[in-house]
Design a protein that fits this description.
Chain A has 346 residues and is an alpha/beta fold. Chain A has twelve helices and twelve strands. Chain A binds a DNA duplex (30 and 30 nucleotides) through α2 and α4.
Chain lengths: 346, 346
DNA sequence: AGCGCTTACGGAAGCGCTTACGTCAGGTAG
DNA sequence: CTACCTGACGTAAGCGCTTCCGTAAGCGCT
């Protein structure tokens, strides 16, 4: 790959300004011990020449890094891109760079990304996105992060309880309970849950909430069909096909994220099933397009952009002794995709 | 910010393995001149110790960087996040890291991001997203990129003709012509264009296509209202309000990107205007949710993810003598949001 | 046995910065 | 007028790595 050769060096600037390397360095990085006059001259010349300091050299020598690493599951999933938006915007305001990595929900690759970030000597690593239910699967990543912390790095996560670090925790369980209650209160008793991949803790949490709500009605989660599919639009679409073909009498479909709900909606439309007339549909996340779907989607709002800002804020704030955890809160957003259960045999 | 102090160094590994620094380095970076036996031992110990090379030191000494910088306008805009998805996925396959920056459509900030990327000594810089119609505005960025190229860096862009670099160029003008023709062929004569900010070349290009299509029908673009607003959902929503209130007899609204089209749709729905019954709506980009809107959106498809892969591929491929340009192609996707113009006074 | 050649390794010189420390003015106090 | 401090600057020692050398074996050959 490209090797950046023969770029302008600080010595060049220093020579041109007729000062020593040290003075030039101090002038450009705003340290004192340089007269205003000289500092101005150096800065002027640097600008003129288009000098950009070599960050690798600077980091090597100085030690402090001003870049934060952000690992997300899927960068083109709205859930994550909205989180990333929050992180990036806040970081920009503070003059920090963010290095975004993409794990593709593959714990192995995630480990690799963490390693890269560490190699890049970022000051902060933020991991956004569900952990894995199988603890073994992410043990390596966890260990790597711990090592990073010991070495003085800051870590913060969104949605992982397992890592010992500051965490922003989405209200998954509460939210799950809230949508489920909503559906139940509309009289739905034949509910099918479209869940994402079983190995994600987020799914487990949301399901737990759903189970709690069912319990409160004297129903058991074991009696409701739970389809584990891909956490994407297509996963939802396929699940809906399966439901229409195999689960008779369904009155409501609860998708555990909006992407899948969108897929469900799409299948129902193409199969001519009216929503919410025949089947109600609810999602989770309140992705920004949820309001613009046909019909608009009932869902649980999680403040993604704000979550992004919060993790970064936590990560940046000097570490208190024990990891802080902040839950996001949630809000049930009732829109047009849910309605009263159609009366049996009517 | 966090300073990563006292991390494991290569010497530590070398000492532990009983070899010299040089040998350890060769072993870990796969250079030859080391016996298999020793190399294995070193690698084993490195793994055991959890050694991760300091990329800054490595880059400083070696010169080659394996990270690519990607600058987008808005990371949480689906158009860009889909492009980013393409870049990131392909990069991942090749073992490259991607550093994503976000300019917020601010040329000044974009310049700052370019500088940061250069400071980070990335090997490749990719700039995605419209250029600015005012050449002065991005002269600085252009100069900076040129300097980067001279120093051996690779640059590739999406949607900027002005930069001297390999470019993937969306079929903006052709696409604009295609949607406009579609609308005209449905009998629409009272078309309002919802354009994004005037300072973006993308807008200018798409508008030029629209103008061409109008010309072919003996109509002039000067006779059709063009509203310049924010390139976002809200920009579209506001524009639609204005249209309903101030432009009588509109039969079709052509939004120059999907985000704005979504906003238009939302306003029309809340104002009780039927689409396409009373007003047809078309967008541009074919963002992934376009198919799931209410009604599904007629638009021009641009293969975003593929564009992302293409720029990266171009950037990575050894530079031919002159910059290559590859146009993306486009496809008119007719869905439910457009229909025949309602007959006047009917 | 002596020659050169290859192979495996160690020594040491940087890469471009920051920063501890030394120096040398000039100013103040005694 | 000397002693001392302060401020402005230069000198040089690294930061952790890669890589160019040099060197010492080990090999086959004459």
């Amino acid at each position: 790959m490209g090797r950046t050769r023969s770029a302008l060096r600080l010595v060049d600037v220093a020579d041109r300004a007729g000062v020593s390397l040290a003075t030039a360095s101090r002038a450009l990085s705003g340290r004192d011990g340089v007269s205003e006059e000289v500092a101005d001259r150096v800065r002027e010349i640097a600008r003129e020449l288009g000098y950009v300091a070599n960050l690798h050299a600077r980091t090597l020598a100085g030690g402090a890094t001003s870049t934060v690493g952000l690992i997300v599951h899927e960068i083109d999933d709205p859930y994550f891109s909205e989180i990333a938006g929050g992180v990036v915007r806040l970081a920009g305001e503070q003059g920090l760079m963010v290095q975004i990595c993409h794990s593709g929900r593959d714990p192995e690759f995630e480990l690799h990304e963490i390693r890269s970030l560490i190699a890049h000597r970022v000051g902060v690593i933020i991991v956004a996105g569900s952990g894995y239910t199988d603890p073994k699967v992410q043990a390596a990543a966890k260990a790597e992060l711990a090592r990073f912390q010991e070495a003085g790095g800051r870590v913060a996560v969104i949605g992982r309880h397992s890592v010992t670090a500051d965490a922003v925790l989405p209200d998954n369980e509460e939210g799950g309970a809230a949508v489920a209650e909503h559906l139940l209160s509309l009289g739905h008793r034949k509910i099918v849950v479209v869940a994402g991949p079983q190995r994600l803790t987020t799914i487990a949490d949301r399901l737990a909430g759903v189970a709690r709500a069912l319990d409160a009605q004297g129903m058991s989660i074991d009696a409701v069909p739970v389809l584990h599919t891909d956490f994407t639009r297509n996963g939802g679409a396929e699940a809906a096909e399966k439901i229409l073909d195999q689960v008779a009498g369904t009155t409501a479909i609860l998708a555990l994220n909006d992407a899948m709900a969108i897929g469900v909606l799409s299948t129902l439309r193409s199969r001519g099933v009216s929503v919410p007339g025949q089947i109600s549909v609810a999602g989770f996340d309140d992705v920004s397009v949820a309001a613009d779907l046909a019909p608009s989607l009932t869902t649980v709002r999680l403040p993604m952009a704000q979550m992004g800002e919060q993790v970064l804020t936590m990560a940046l704030r000097p570490s208190s002794t024990r990891p802080r955890r902040k839950s996001t809160g949630h809000e049930l957003i009732v829109r047009d995709s849910t309605g009263p259960a159609r009366t049996r045999r009517g």
